[in-house]
Design brief:
The chain has 128 residues and is an alpha+beta fold. The protein is 52% helix and 12% strand. The strands form 2 sheets. Strands 1-2-3 form a 3-stranded antiparallel sheet, with no helix packed on it. A two-stranded antiparallel sheet has the order 4-5.
């Protein structure tokens, strides 16, 4: 199984958890005792503060959350992220010696949250 096939076989929840922990550097913590923030019991915590409700952060399904992990992946390796997104979308046929044609670029811009999450995973997981 290739790395791409491996990430494509992951459940949304498993990929969301990996991205929260490894890409964003967060950990899951229980709501502090006495906190009346909302009804959510588990939160993503960045080591200093509570940053997101665990239940409601879904980079595999939510456009805003997927853009957050996309930004992190681009920060780590922008060129690698684009290469991985091309692989996830199977968009290599739109690339030539001059770069991408306009249609190929439009394919990249229309990536779903799940596809952006997969490309982010591949970018960050396999960094040297």
């Amino acid at each position: 199984m290739t790395q791409l096939q491996s990430v494509q076989a992951m459940s949304d929840q498993k990929l969301n958890d990996w991205l929260g922990e490894k890409a964003m550097g967060w950990m899951v913590r229980h709501k502090p005792i006495g906190c009346e923030c909302d009804d959510v019991d588990e939160w993503w915590h960045d080591g200093t503060r509570f940053v997101r409700d665990y239940e409601y952060w879904h980079p595999c399904a939510d456009h805003t959350d997927s853009l957050e992990v996309q930004a992190k992946a681009i920060e780590v390796d922008g060129e690698g992220y684009v290469d991985n997104l091309i692989a996830v979308l199977d968009a290599g046929q739109f690339y030539n010696s001059d770069g991408f044609d306009t249609f190929g670029i439009s394919i990249l811009l229309q990536a779903t949250p799940r596809q952006r999450a997969e490309a982010a995973y591949l970018t960050i997981k396999f960094q040297p």
